[in-house]
Amino acid sequence: MTYVDNKKCIGCGICLPYCPLEAISLRDGKAWVDPDLCADCWVCLRKKVCPKEALQAKELTDFYQVFRHVLCDPVETFADTGVTGRGTEECKTNDVTGRYRRGEVGLAVDMGRPGLGCTLRDVEKVAMALAAAGAELAGPEETPLAQLMTDLTTGKLMEEVLQEPNLTFLSIIIEAKCREERLRDVLKALQKVEQEVDTVFSLGLIIRPLPDGTAPVLKVLDELGIAQPVRGKVNVGLGRPIAEA
Amino acid sequence: MTHSLHRSGDKESLRGDYVWFMYQAKGVNDKNIKDKALEFIAVAEAAGSENWGDVKTGPTTEYTPDEIKKNITDKSRIRGIFTSREQVVAFLQGLKKKDLGFSVVISGLLEEVLPACQDAGVTPHTINYSLGVWGRKDRLPNDDILAVTTMCGHHMISPRLVEKLIGEVRRGRYTPEQAALKLANFCHCGIFNHVRAAKLLQHYAASED
Asked: Is the N or C terminus of chain A more exposed, i.e. has fewer CB atoms within 10 Å?
């Protein structure tokens, strides 16, 4: 994780406002990085926010620290998926990968976003709620989180990662998909579990729309009291070779 | 990665906020991309993209376009912003004509992006629809701050920095444009809309504390 070199720190506090998770504070006249809050995104290091270069990166010594850094620092590329950011392609290349097909709904649950961060315990709660409601969780070739799961059919995470005391993520994506007819149950499960987590998540539904961009399956949102979407990310189908429907 | 999907703010403000993406897919069209990527970027530049970047180098608010272009590799992620529907239409028309083979994604208000697709003669293939924020929303910063911070979906822009810069604009130490550029440089992808941010910061600074 990031730490402060007390020999260099002059206690000016310039660095304090830059940490997205407010992990930096002043303690005994010096800057201090809270290890329980720092997610190793390294934005403070990359942007050189300390004029005295007192902020330093500790060597990442185990798999979990490296895993977290790669997911939290958008500059890094996740080796198994070949994708930067949080290491997943979801709908972005669906015109050539055909990952989401007609009749299916993709679910991208962006845990900890916007800006609160998340623990793996909360991630597990949501993943298990999705799986129990009939969603199929994405595998390790598609999404990094799957590497921490013991069973994709339940969403259970490895016990050892749940015991990691300092593993706060800036955000981590749970990816899944379900048949359209299961969407109501899946959304109801999310409505329940949102009251059980101590953070926020942002939710995206990935759908093959009608040519005008509408998606009849979204009528289920009205039944559940969920507002219809006003924003979207539109893959306009210019990738080649185009995937089968 | 859904880092452009969940931008917040009022509709009028979001009407000037579009994100464009070029995606090469692993194992499909991700080898020796540089020449085609340069053609792709030329289309975005011709359409007037105000900020763009490659996450492996940084945004044009901080680096010159030539520096970013020089560093493009197969691991690059090229993306940027537009501030009008007309730019989106011109961009999509240009890419349709070029037929470069990369996946193209536009993020924005659906009531603006979908007509833009129609005007450009392209058909939406897949849409990621934003259902917004769930869970402990009581722990979030206020809506004004979120309208700025969510323009960097990887959350490299801290709420406290936005608050600090609103104060600096209010005191006349930064113009809204200078403050917006300072924020934009923290979004390494190049999708921070500093044009929209400057308007928001100006509005916030003119309001009561």
From this structure: C
Q: What is the total count of domains within chain A?
A: 2
Lookup result for tokens 């962006």: A110
Token pair for B74: 């197969």
Same domain, A165 and A44: no
Closest alpha carbon within chain A to B3: A85
Q: Which of residues 101-160 of B touch A (CB under 8 A)?
A: 101-111, 113-114, 117-118, 122-137, 139-141, 146, 149-150, 153-160
Angle at which helices B34-46 and B85-98 cross, to 10° = 150
Q: Classify residue A64: in a domain, yes or no.
A: no
- Let me know if residue A233 belongs to a domain: no
ipTM of the complex: 0.96
CB contact under 8 A, A115 and B140: yes
pLDDT digits (tens, 9 = 90+) for A188-207: 999 999 999 999 999 999 99
- With an 8 Å Cβ cutoff, are A234 and B106 in contact? yes
User: Which of A99, A117, A167, A83 has the alpha carbon at shortest distance from B155?
Assistant: A117
How many whole angstroms separate alpha carbon A25 and alpha carbon B160? 12
Query: Structure tokens of B105?
Result: 């994604």
What is the DSSP secondary-structure string of A194-217? TTT-SSEEEEEEEE---TTS--GG
Q: Are B102 and A81 inside 8 Å of each other by CB? A: no
Q: Between chains, do A92 and B1 touch, taking CB under 8 Å as contact?
A: yes
List pLDDT tens digits, range A133-191. Answer: 999 999 998 888 999 999 999 999 999 888 876 678 999 999 999 999 999 999 999 99
- pTM value? 0.94
CATH number, position A37: 3.30.70.20
Q: Are B59 and B197 in contact (CB under 8 A)?
A: no
Between A82-91, A201-210, A234-243, B164-173, the lowest mean confidence (pLDDT) is in A82-91
State whether A82 and A109 are in the same domain.
yes
Cβ atoms of B25 and A93 within 8 Å: the answer is: yes
Task: With beta carbons under 8 A apart, name residues in chain A contacting B128.
Answer: 90-91, 106, 108, 204-206, 232-233
pLDDT for A27: 97
What residues in A contact B96, CB-CB < 8 Å?
238
